[in-house]
């Protein structure tokens, strides 16, 4: 049986990812073990798990270092890596939005500054709108940017909107909804097709049940 | 400036020797199968890479420039379009069989094994439209990869027409067809479901499209597809794939063959059977090809054609991953001599070279070089020790 390497995202989607993979017959203690190591082999299901930064998942999968991976649609659209995106796993739901100070909605000139962790999504969005904006790439705490005058608006991912509200920001526009996706390396899909098809099938059933 | 621009590289002796040894085996395989090597120019008029409805390649991916007369030129993004031009404009009798090993230029994001300048080794079979020509093309690719020592690879066969034949019934606008094509290329089942629902495609048509991403695997998948895709056009293409498979089976290659009915090619000129070759544990295809029956029309002759290109740098990566010891350097010999023995020494060196060795004449007094170069053998001619 071919061994399959699975790249899972650290952080908010890790637990849910393990939950759906339970349907592939992984042993119970694997998640505990994973909290201590970066790399775990499960002999029972012949699956190897690696835990990496969410934005690195598509990179591992594109290069075939992992055969399959779990990754948010937001990250996929930002990085545009060349791999199969086969399933919407249905969890990790959130929205990519344009947000800014609540009291200043619709008052900006179209030529403005946009702070974001997703520069290529932001660029494409404004290009389609026909607006020339300055994109400012940040690596975190994007909500801060409009408060201190680094930018007029932000493009960011929103789950509940609490963080935005706490910082006096409000959603101006929704760009697209996002959720966790199952991605597969293009060569693995063909060279290990039986095994991967089986995993896709089981995960599909598991997502449809929940 | 001492740096290189993105996407190009220097090949130093050891790596180049490795690359050449692969190219030599590929060339020999192609030529012994009846494909004669040709070499088109590195650049030509940009319009040669396009047809009336537009360019075959993404314009932004081409290296374009003006010559002094103001004509727009482009570095070739592939060799197939050039071979099509040559076959249409310089020949009158068909079929023709050509092969090439040449560098191509694409302004993509550089990746391992896919630089902006990279080498393609391929064949083109022009003037025949028959399952035998598709099978021949695939079999040459398989033999070529086997000969360079690649193990554990799969030829993944698809059909460019299959998806097109399904589109006819859907009544989608052109740009929506493109969206669906991209989703299919990603095998994006969930998004395809959403797409079909949004476009009010239901019932039978919904089932036909939504399951397409999963129609890949061994020959059984074609039999399964026959039960699902029962209309005439689809049946014709499926039967054709089966006949090609039967030929390849008789050639002993059935173990290497898989099918993918959801395969779409990004280059726009493909029309029929298409294929890609994947090596286990290498994340990308090392060979791509297929039928392009409409390309030659562009240059004045309406002829069917098929072919493939192997990416030589990716083949190198695959061999490196399979830790194949490849480069055999010939034995190197230093012939050490002085002013009075040089005549005799030169003849000895010539003889050694003719026997396939590397032989260098070293004049006494250059012992430093002798040490640095680490020759396999040193022959002293008329020179005393010390």
Automatic annotation (TrEMBL), chain B:
Gene3D superfamilies: Bira Bifunctional Protein, Domain 2. InterPro entries: aa-tRNA-synth_II, aa-tRNA-synth_II/BPL/LPL, HisRS-like_core, HisRS/HisZ, HisZ. SUPFAM superfamilies: Class II aaRS and biotin synthetases. Keywords: Amino-acid biosynthesis, Cytoplasm, Glycosyltransferase, Histidine biosynthesis, Transferase. Its main location: cytoplasm. GO terms for molecular function: glycosyltransferase activity. Pathway: Amino-acid biosynthesis; L-histidine biosynthesis; L-histidine from 5-phospho-alpha-D-ribose 1-diphosphate: step 1/9. This function is generally fulfilled by the C-terminal part of HisG, which is missing in some bacteria such as this one. Heteromultimer composed of HisG and HisZ subunits. Required for the first step of histidine biosynthesis. May allow the feedback regulation of ATP phosphoribosyltransferase activity by histidine. Belongs to the class-II aminoacyl-tRNA synthetase family. HisZ subfamily. This is ATP phosphoribosyltransferase regulatory subunit.
């Amino acid at each position: 049986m071919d061994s399959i390497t699975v790249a899972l995202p650290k952080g908010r989607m890790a637990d849910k990812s393990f939950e759906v993979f339970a349907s592939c017959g992984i042993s119970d203690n694997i998640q505990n073990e994973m909290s201590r190591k970066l790399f775990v082999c499960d002999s029972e299901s012949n699956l190897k798990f690696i835990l990496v930064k969410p934005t690195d998942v598509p990179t591992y999968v594109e290069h075939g270092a992992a055969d399959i991976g779990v990754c948010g649609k937001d990250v996929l659209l930002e990085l545009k890596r060349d791999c199969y995106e086969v399933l919407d796993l249905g969890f990790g739901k959130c929205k990519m939005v344009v947000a800014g100070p609540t009291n200043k909605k619709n008052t900006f000139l179209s030529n403005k500054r946009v702070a974001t962790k997703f520069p290529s999504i932001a660029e494409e969005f404004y290009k389609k709108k026909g607006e020339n904006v300055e994109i400012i790439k940040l690596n975190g705490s994007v909500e801060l940017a409009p408060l201190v005058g680094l930018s007029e608006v932000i493009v960011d991912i929103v789950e509940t909107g609490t963080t935005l509200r706490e910082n006096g920001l409000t959603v101006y526009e929704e760009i697209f909804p996002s959720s966790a996706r199952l991605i597969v390396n293009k060569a693995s899909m063909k060279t290990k097709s039986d095994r991967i098809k089986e995993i896709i099938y089981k995960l599909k059933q598991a997502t449809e049940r929940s | 400036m001492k740096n290189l621009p993105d996407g190009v590289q220097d090949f130093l002796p050891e790596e180049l020797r490795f690359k050449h040894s692969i190219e030599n085996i590929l060339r020999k395989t192609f030529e012994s199968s009846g494909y004669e090597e040709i070499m088109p120019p590195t650049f030509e008029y940009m319009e040669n890479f396009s047809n009336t409805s537009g360019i075959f390649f993404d314009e932004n991916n081409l290296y374009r420039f003006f010559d002094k007369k103001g004509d727009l030129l482009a570095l070739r993004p592939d060799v197939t379009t050039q071979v099509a031009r040559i076959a249409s404009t310089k020949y009158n009798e068909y079929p023709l069989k050509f092969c090439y090993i040449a560098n191509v230029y694409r302004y993509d994001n550089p990746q391992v094994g896919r630089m902006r300048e990279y080498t393609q080794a391929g064949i083109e079979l022009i003037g025949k439209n028959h399952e035998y020509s598709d099978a021949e093309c695939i079999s040459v690719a398989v033999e070529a990869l086997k000969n360079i020592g690649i193990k554990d690879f799969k030829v993944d066969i698809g059909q460019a027409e299959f998806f097109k034949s399904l589109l006819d019934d859907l009544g989608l606008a052109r740009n929506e067809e493109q969206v669906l094509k991209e989703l299919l290329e990603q095998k994006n089942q969930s998004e395809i479901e959403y797409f079909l629902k949004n476009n009010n495609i239901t019932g039978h048509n919904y089932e036909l499209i939504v399951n397409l991403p999963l129609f890949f695997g061994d020959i059984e998948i074609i039999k399964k597809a026959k039960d699902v895709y029962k209309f005439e056009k689809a049946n014709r293409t499926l039967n054709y794939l089966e006949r090609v498979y039967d030929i390849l089976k008789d050639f002993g290659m059935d173990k290497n063959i898989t099918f993918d009915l959801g395969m779409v090619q990004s280059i726009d000129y493909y029309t029929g059977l298409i294929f890609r070759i994947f090596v286990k544990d290498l994340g990308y295809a090392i060979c791509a090809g297929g039928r392009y029956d409409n390309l030659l029309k562009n240059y004045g002759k309406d002829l069917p054609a098929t072919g493939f290109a192997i990416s030589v740098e990716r083949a190198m990566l695959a061999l490196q991953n399979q830790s194949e010891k490849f480069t055999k350097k010939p034995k190197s010999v230093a012939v050490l001599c002085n002013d009075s023995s040089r005549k005799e020494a030169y003849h000895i060196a010539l003889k050694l070279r003719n026997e396939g060795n590397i032989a260098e004449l070293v004049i006494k007094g250059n012992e430093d070089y002798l040490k640095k170069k680490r020759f396999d053998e040193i022959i002293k001619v008329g020179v005393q020790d010390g």
